[in-house]
Specification:
Number of helices: 0
Largest sheet: 7 strands, mixed
Strand content: over 45%
Number of strands: 11
Shape: globular
Structural class: mainly beta
Length: 128
């Protein structure tokens, strides 16, 4: 059974940094899309950053380009999101998600149902 467990959220002031981690287990796929999504109160969930596990392709929402970096450590089966220059509008619940199959690219934005596996989320709060 696939499990995704996020950690690393917290409260920071604007301009600060956080690094989110997503530990994955139970996976049989070796080259699939994984990514980070977020949902602010009263808003729909939005994609933040995606990457092909084991590949070079990364994708970012315009709002985070140049500030966030998605990466992985295959030895630890862990996905990361380094978040720098945080803004109050980055506040929200951040979720890790994983897709299926074997791919060399990730659709951006992803179609509904593309990511069947989700973590429980980790809260990020940025104060001004």
């Amino acid at each position: 059974q696939v499990q995704l467990v996020e950690s690393g959220g917290g409260s920071v002031q604007a301009g600060g940094s956080l690094r989110l981690s997503c530990a994955a287990s139970g996976y049989t796929y070796i080259r699939h899309c994984m990514g980070w999504f977020r949902q602010a109160p009263g808003k729909e969930r939005e994609v933040v950053a995606l990457m092909v596990k084991g590949g070079d392709s990364t994708y970012y929402a315009d709002s985070v380009k140049g500030r966030f970096t998605i990466s992985e450590d295959n030895t630890k089966n862990t996905l990361y999101l380094q978040m720098n220059s945080l803004k109050p509008e980055d506040t929200g619940m951040y979720y890790c998600a994983a897709g299926r199959g074997y791919t060399s690219s990730c659709p951006f934005p992803p179609p509904p149902g593309y990511y069947p596996y989700w973590g429980q989320g980790t809260q990020v709060t940025v104060s001004s």
